[in-house]
Design goal:
- Its main location: membrane.
- It is found in: Cell membrane; Membrane.
- It comes from Streptomyces hirsutus.
- There is one protein chain.
- By secondary structure, the chain is mostly helical.
- Helix 2 (about 20-40) runs antiparallel to helix 3.
- It has helices at about 1-15, 20-40, 50-80, 85-90, 95-120, 140-160, 165-180, 190-195, 200-215, 220-245.
- The protein has ten helices and no strands.
């Protein structure tokens, strides 16, 4: 427990010292919200009758939280391995669960602040997002989403050895996934074959769960299927992460 607390505290201090990263972690999703809010203001999707904002707000929030979880632990594991910090932790009594658990707590904290800030801005005049009455269900959905994408970040951080490779792999996965999963553009307006392709992407399930909980676009079954999809991906990513994790560059 002392190792876990020490790693969490050290990770928090390192995170808040990097002002640029902190700023863009929270500002990046808000920039997308402002851009999409201005472009699609007053417009609705013909296929569903819901406003574009009900799609883009939930989708951008999902993408922002997932992105932060992936990049946060991906860069940390790569850097700690390069600096031999992971090797020193391995020689200590601290277990691997303390390393991942400390980053998990920080990812949850970042996701919570992101969500509160994002929804607060989306409710301002001009965006006029009105949360659905079942918005509390957003909390477990985001919890599962952060868990799933943090495990994906563990995989990326374990196989990448440079900051450039972490950024390259993460962007290669997250940017196309955002478009194909409906984060930036409503899936209802996409071809049927593309909607089917999105079913094999974890961000699709996070988008569906967040949309149903936050904006009411969907019912409880959408939240349930979104949660089940995230659990399934978390199990797969967890198994792969356990096999790919490296304490050093060679092992």
């Amino acid at each position: 427990m002392s190792a876990y607390s020490a790693l969490t505290a050290a990770g928090y201090r390192a995170q808040v010292r990097d002002k640029t990263t902190v700023f863009f972690t929270f500002a990046f999703p808000l920039i997308f919200l402002v851009v999409f809010g201005l472009v699609f203001r007053g417009r609705s999707v013909e296929e569903s009758g819901f406003s574009y904002l009900s799609y883009t707000a939930a989708g951008v929030l999902s993408w922002g939280v997932a992105n932060a979880a992936v990049f946060g632990i991906g860069f940390t594991l790569m850097q700690w391995r390069s600096d031999d910090i992971l090797r020193m932790i391995r020689l200590s009594p601290a277990p691997l669960t303390a390393v991942i658990g400390s980053r998990y707590v920080l990812a949850l904290g970042v996701g919570l602040v992101q969500s509160v800030l994002f929804v607060g801005v989306a409710m301002l005049p001009g965006f006029d997002l009105v949360p659905d009455s079942r918005w509390p269900l957003l909390i477990p959905v985001l919890l599962l989403g952060i868990t799933t994408f943090l495990l994906l970040g563990v995989i990326i951080g374990s196989i990448a050895d440079t900051p450039e490779s972490v950024a390259g792999i993460a962007n290669f996965l997250m940017l196309p996934m955002a478009f194909l999963s409906g984060s930036f553009f409503p899936l209802d307006a996409m071809p049927d074959w593309l909607q089917k392709v999105s079913m094999v992407l974890p961000l699709r399930y996070l988008n569906d769960g967040v949309s149903a909980a936050l904006t009411g676009r969907g019912d409880l079954s959408d939240i349930g299927w979104g949660a089940l999809g995230l659990v399934a991906f978390a199990v797969v990513f967890g198994a792969v992460a356990a096999r790919t994790f490296r304490w050093t560059k060679s092992s």
